[in-house]
Automatic annotation (TrEMBL):
PANTHER family: OXIDOREDUCTASE, SHORT-CHAIN DEHYDROGENASE/REDUCTASE FAMILY (AFU_ORTHOLOGUE AFUA_5G02870) (PTHR43639), SHORT-CHAIN DEHYDROGENASE_REDUCTASE FAMILY PROTEIN (PTHR43639:SF1). One of its GO terms (molecular function) is oxidoreductase activity. It comes from the Bacteria. Pfam families: adh_short_C2. This is NAD(P)-dependent dehydrogenase (Short-subunit alcohol dehydrogenase family). It comes from Pedobacter duraquae.
Length: 246
């Protein structure tokens, strides 16, 4: 195929869906990976031939190599990987079990490593490729009651920098987008149920408003495009200034 081929994990909902929409609009064929086949199928139908999907729970690390092989055999290349899939858990520190912690880290960090490793094996053959990881404000400063998520997302940023130094000589760029508070159904539900946290979000966001999923999608596309061809190892906050707000 002459089109670029992108994998977007968690591409059927939320920020992932916005990223899928943007890449597809730019003429890139997107292969969404996710657990919910109904959401993936609906998204794929909306985007037509610009999009397809594979169903996989990324906690199943052993299944990842075969899935990447399947995508590579089907399309002949993988140009872009967007590691967006993630889960969160809001719990007081002392109530988080070992199993809770391991589950969040498995999905949000270990799976990112595993799928990146397998995709890089394919990108090396073409001496080209782009990987974009999705981090969070939870890696920029301390947020209470999300210890596992914070640990995983901080790991994502460190891994982004380490990957960039090792993979750049192979023609592969690795960057990261760190969304702030973005207006999604999930964030609205969380903030509306916690007025104190909602007030704190707006009080320390200089732009005084929440971002839109499209804002994150545009940043991801920048890292996928020729406009960033000399950029690697960067963590870009898309947060209305939240990470530097007082």
């Amino acid at each position: 195929m002459s089109k670029q081929i992108a994998i977007v994990t968690g591409g059927g909902a939320g920020l992932g869906l916005a990223i899928t929409k943007k890449l597809a609009h730019e003429g890139i064929h997107v292969v969404m990976i996710g657990r919910n086949e109904e959401k993936l199928k609906t998204a794929a139908q909306d985007f037509g031939s610009s999009c397809s999907y594979k169903v996989l729970d990324l906690q199943d690390l052993k299944a990842i190599p075969a899935l990447v092989d399947e995508i590579y055999q089907e399309f002949g290349k993988i140009d872009i990987l967007v590691n967006n899939a993630g889960i969160n858990m809001k719990k007081p520190f002392v109530e988080v079990t070992d199993e809770d912690f391991a589950g969040v880290v498995q999905t949000n960090l270990a799976s990112v490593f595993a799928i990146s490793r397998e995709v890089v094996k394919k990108m090396i053959d073409h001496h080209a490729g782009v990987i974009v990881n999705i981090s969070s404000m939870a890696a920029q400063y301390g947020i209470p009651k999300v210890i596992a998520y914070s640990a995983a997302k901080t790991g994502i940023e460190g891994m982004t920098r380490a990957m960039s130094t090792e993979l750049a000589p192979l023609g592969i760029r690795t960057n990261c987008v760190a969304p702030g508070f973005i207006e999604t159904a999930m964030s609205a539900k969380a903030l509306d149920a916690d007025p104190e946290r909602k007030n704190k979000v707006f009080s320390r966001t200089p732009m005084g408003k929440m971002g839109q999923p499209d804002d994150v999608a545009e940043a991801v596309y920048f890292f996928c495009s020729e406009g960033s061809k000399y950029v690697t190892g960067v963590v870009m906050p898309v947060d209305g200034g939240n990470s530097v707000g007082f």
